[in-house]
Amino acid sequence: MNTQATVSAQPNLALVKYWGKKNRGINVPATSSIGLTLNGIETRTTLTLMDRGTGGPRIKVNGTELQDSRFEVFFRQAEKLFSPRLRQTGISFSDIIEKLAVDSTNNFPTAAGLASSSSGLGALAFGLDALLETRLERSALSALARSGSGSAARTLYGGFVEFREGSTRARQLAGNDHWPEFRVVVFTVSAQAKKTSSRAGMNAIKKSSPCFPAWVRDSRSLFKEMRSAVLDRDIEKTGTIARLSYLRMFATMFAANPPLVYWQPESIEIIHALEDLRSQGIAVWETMDAGPQVKALCEEKDLADVLAAFHNRESRPIILSAGKGPEVIETWK
Ligand code: PMV
Prior knowledge:
6-stranded mixed beta sheet
């Protein structure tokens, strides 16, 4: 067992969205999603076993100590997963938790619709395995990460990752070298943390949106089409379906009572600007999540044209591609 482990994990951006949970299990998705683990932004997490108990786990995110019910659920599941593997060591998982300090930093805006919870919980699951030297399978860690955040199940793998409706773990659809020309251009409209978390949002929508059952039904065909579009590296099909998926997800929010609106005026300006580019023959589409940021989807050959159209924006877009998935940075005995 190590006394310290530092790991990195990248957020996973959904091209077809997970939005809504089944009535059973923890964060079991009502819709199948496909996401891309990103290269270029990351969560870096250091897990340290202190000499003495500190009433842990003590969890800091970007320097601020956090109490979140998500962590309680996560650590209850972690206990079930890791306890049998710790028997030979004579140390119980609750002793470890008591001494555990977690320090997590994102090099991108947190809780602002950039999937920081996916990389945060993914890094925590992957980091515990590195700290305890348990060498669990990725799929077991994916299931653990899911208990903290549904989209985190996808961050345990690099490249393109699918997470099927009713499933407890994600799996890789294609590696990070499958589509090297694929680019995500993130336009940060607001770096402020959102008022309604994805979790609270999707639960409220499921209860009150008349569009929710149609969304769930329709997502099945979008998932199938996206799967083949990604495997064929078909940018036009990928972009078109990604657009349908996020806009139909937002349709469930607009139809809910009370309605949920994550968009800002600038989000809509960017959507229109991208539409203008498409009408000029530039192959660019976009997606959005539970926040105001717009993420353009294109290939390297069209990147310069996309960037040129936004050269007057104050905040610089972030350019990302497919990432490798979580990595151990260093460990200490
Ligand atoms: O895993 P959560 O609770 O952060 O929810 C993720 C929801 C979306 O980002 C909107 C969609 C997705 O599949 O990542």
